Amino acid sequence: MNKFKYYFVLLLAGIAIVSCSKKDDDDVVVVPLRDYAEQYKADKDSIEQYLKTNFIEEVTADFDVKISKIPTGGTQTSIWDQTEYPLQHRDVYSHDVTYRVYYLKLREGSGDKPCNFDAIKASYVGNFLNNKQFDSSYGLAADLDLNIYAARPTIDGWGEIMPQFRTGIKNAPNDDGTITYSDYGAGVMFLPSGLGYYGNPPEGIPSYTCLVFSFKLLALKRSDLEYSTSSQATVGDGVPSYLEDINGDGYLYDQRDTARYPNLPKELIDDTDGDGIPDFMDFDDDGDGYTTRFEIEKPVGAPVTGISLYYPFDPIGDNPDTPNVDETEIWGIPRRPTGELADPSKPESITNSRKYVPEDYTTPGRLRIHLDKSYPYQKN
Ligand SMILES: [Ca+2]
Ligand SMILES: [Ca+2]
Ligand SMILES: [Ca+2]
Ligand SMILES: [Ca+2]
Known about the structure:
This protein is an alpha+beta fold. It has helices at 2-20, 36-53, 156-161, 292-295, 359-362, and strands spanning 54-59, 65-69, 87-94, 97-107, 119-127, 133-136, 142-145, 169-170, 181-182, 185-191, 211-221, 227-228, 234-235. A hairpin with a 5-residue loop joins strand 1 and strand 2.
């Protein structure tokens, strides 16, 4: 028995030495990741325990939050039981686990909602469950990319929670040039390790750690992600990702990522032509053999206003924030044309198409051509 113990200790020491040594590639020890479902059981317990034993000590006028442990004998109301900021949760599917992610909405915000593939500006503080801080943006607006496939993505939990909030309104610059925002979304999210760094954390964060982020969502930048270029930049198909959220749930998922989503529920998939590529990554959303990019591009000499190469999703007005630019676009992405046939004596076909009429660009609820499987062919 003693002998066994001795070997066991020796083995552990050996692993520790090997994983610290970078002398030789052969020395790299690959530690298999823990089972996600098992780890989540433990994380869920830890987070719920945290929510029941900590309280919101302060929320300042600027939505800086202080959370503290309820002292022994303390009468403070726990985060779990308090009612001023009702504890909310959202079910998140990842690694075949349905995570219940808790968050607090201190204020929703009054601007736009990001989708889970947009880039955002946010200020944040990251704490462990012992309320010790491990990261912060120092009260400044950090540029963060919610796109989990970006070169420098945020952890998965951010993209899952941010679409529940709205950005703020950008104020006129101060005299010293600094920018401030008002009416921004503010909240706190309590992330299980599976939606955080899991088994591969950066230095200073232990593996399998639950994370608490308080944040202010200040601004966003819409993404459009279909085409990857060698420099890891992406060029889109002209339709911003958030408008490729066909089921309107605020979220996009790539079902081809079977490592992350082994059995992605159908109701989470936005894939118009059902070819296995979600619309926000698909060059040809309706699968008609014509790329969306060219279907929604304005033809040369088209009698339309606006500065963009592509039709906007819907007609848009001028942006009052940019007095020197007229963004007005009176026509949005058209539906399949409904006007007169080029040759009325013959049936409609790819060589005898109908003319566009103004309503084709403006009618609310129209099926836009990049999503219309019947365009440009007449199917009889
Ligand atoms: Ca797109
Ligand atoms: Ca969706
Ligand atoms: Ca598709
Ligand atoms: Ca198409």
